[in-house]
């Protein structure tokens, strides 16, 4: 094998210019493939981290996956009922204290009760509709990033102000309100209550900054006329991988629908899978194009070294060895290109990681999300070597089938 490798290296070295061009083709393919994979996975990881921190890992809602059986269907054995009036019931999770206590016994993470509803916010003769969320501040801060989004005031002030209110900065700007102002909230039932603005937040999401507000849970229960009732429980887990298991167990235990972050974003996960397939398809296409350069140079070597092949076969080299020589020539170019491409990919990824840009005036200067992973280099190099081997194998099979007698007589 060493002799075959030396022969292959000599052939490649004798056509130095073509070898350098083919090697550069492989190097560029590997380098740009690694850089693209690092950028794509980095953006995916960054988005997922932002998403996971922004939403509950598990959320328990005040609804059932399957509709409840109506009393008439339990009482009477009938196929179909018409004109039934469902029993009116105040929707929500009853006995939240008991429900939270039963979850704390086994859930590894933080839990936060919430009561949300629609309300109209009025100030200085202007009205805006928004979603009002009643929270226990210290628990809400443990399961969400609202504390990091505060621009004025403190979210913890809701603990010390029974009628405190935290709203988005864009909602405050539309109303002309500011920190310390008193506003009026009116529920869908017509109940009105005055609140004092103790904080302004900015999430960067317009729908949240204009249509979301936080207040103490007790105050919201009074405003919505739902005493001792909540309509959701947010869970932030210590081990995010347990989200599906925790959601399933919580649903069995409480009887309410529990949704993990994976279930809530199932469509997004499928989109990421498709994007990864597209990414690696493009990477493979780039390296296949680089393989054509290797095929070209090995084919040229086979044509030019026909007499050498005849001499080697005359000396007793079997067809398998002749074929291995030219496959090794393709692999030599592939290895050199893979090494150079890995260095190029690392350099490109490192440079992209330093690039700064600013999207809007509200967003701080940020960098491109680059994820460095050894798997990117391994996959790109293996694809490069595979394409190099295939590119070398096709002309190698032709070389192995050459008849030395015909070559020596000048038939080819």
From TrEMBL:
Highest taxon listed in the record's lineage: Bacteria
Pfam families assigned to the protein according to its UniProt record, in alphabetical order: FtsX, MacB_PCD
Entry's transmembrane regions: 20-40, 277-298, 331-354, 374-394
Keywords: Cell membrane, Membrane, Transmembrane, Transmembrane helix
InterPro entries listed in its UniProt record: ABC3_permease_C, Lipoprotein-release_system, MacB_PCD
Compartments where found: Cell membrane
Domain MacB-like periplasmic core per the UniProt entry, residue ranges: 19-252
Entry membrane topology: Multi-pass membrane protein
Primary localization class, coarse: membrane
Similarity comment text for this entry: Belongs to the ABC-4 integral membrane protein family. LolC/E subfamily.
Name this protein carries in UniProt: ABC transporter permease
């Amino acid at each position: 094998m060493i002799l075959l490798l030396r022969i292959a290296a000599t052939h490649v070295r004798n056509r130095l210019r073509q070898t350098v061009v083919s090697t550069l083709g492989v190097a560029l393919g590997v380098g740009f493939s690694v850089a693209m994979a690092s950028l794509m996975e980095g953006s995916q990881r960054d988005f997922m981290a932002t998403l996971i921190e922004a939403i509950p890992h598990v959320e328990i809602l005040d609804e059932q996956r399957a509709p409840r059986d109506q009393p008439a269907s339990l009482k009477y054995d009938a196929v179909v009922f018409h004109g039934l009036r469902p029993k009116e019931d105040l929707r929500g999770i009853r006995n939240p204290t008991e429900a939270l206590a039963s979850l704390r016994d086994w859930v590894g993470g933080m839990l936060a009760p919430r009561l949300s509803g629609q309300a109209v916010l009025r100030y200085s003769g202007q009205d805006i509709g928004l979603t009002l969320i009643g929270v226990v501040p210290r628990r809400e801060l443990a399961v969400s990033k609202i504390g990091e989004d505060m621009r004025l005031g403190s979210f913890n002030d809701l603990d010390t102000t029974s009628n405190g209110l935290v709203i988005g900065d864009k909602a405050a700007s539309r109303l002309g309100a500011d920190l310390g102002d008193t506003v009026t909230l009116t529920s869908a039932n017509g109940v009105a209550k005055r609140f004092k603005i103790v904080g302004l937040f900015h999430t960067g999401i317009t729908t949240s900054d204009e249509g979301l507000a936080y207040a103490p849970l007790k105050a919201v229960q009074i405003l919505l006329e739902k005493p001792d009732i909540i309509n959701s429980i947010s869970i932030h887990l210590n081990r995010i991988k347990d989200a599906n298991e925790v959601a399933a167990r919580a649903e069995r235990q409480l009887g309410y629908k529990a949704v993990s972050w994976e279930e809530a974003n199932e469509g997004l996960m499928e989109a990421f899978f498709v994007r990864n397939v597209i990414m690696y398809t493009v990477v493979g296409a780039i390296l296949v194009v680089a393989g054509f350069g290797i095929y070209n140079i090995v084919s040229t070597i086979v044509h030019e070294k026909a007499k050498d092949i005849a001499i080697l076969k005359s000396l007793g080299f079997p067809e398998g060895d002749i074929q291995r020589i030219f496959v090794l020539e393709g692999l030599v170019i592939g290895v050199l290109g893979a090494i150079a491409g890995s260095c190029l990919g690392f350099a490109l990824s490192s440079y992209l990681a330093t690039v700064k840009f600013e999207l809007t005036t509200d967003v701080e200067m940020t960098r491109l999300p680059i994820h460095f992973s050894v798997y990117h280099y391994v996959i790109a190099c293996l694809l490069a070597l595979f394409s190099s081997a295939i590119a070398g194998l096709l002309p190698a099979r032709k070389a192995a089938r050459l008849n030395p007698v015909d070559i020596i007589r000048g038939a080819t």
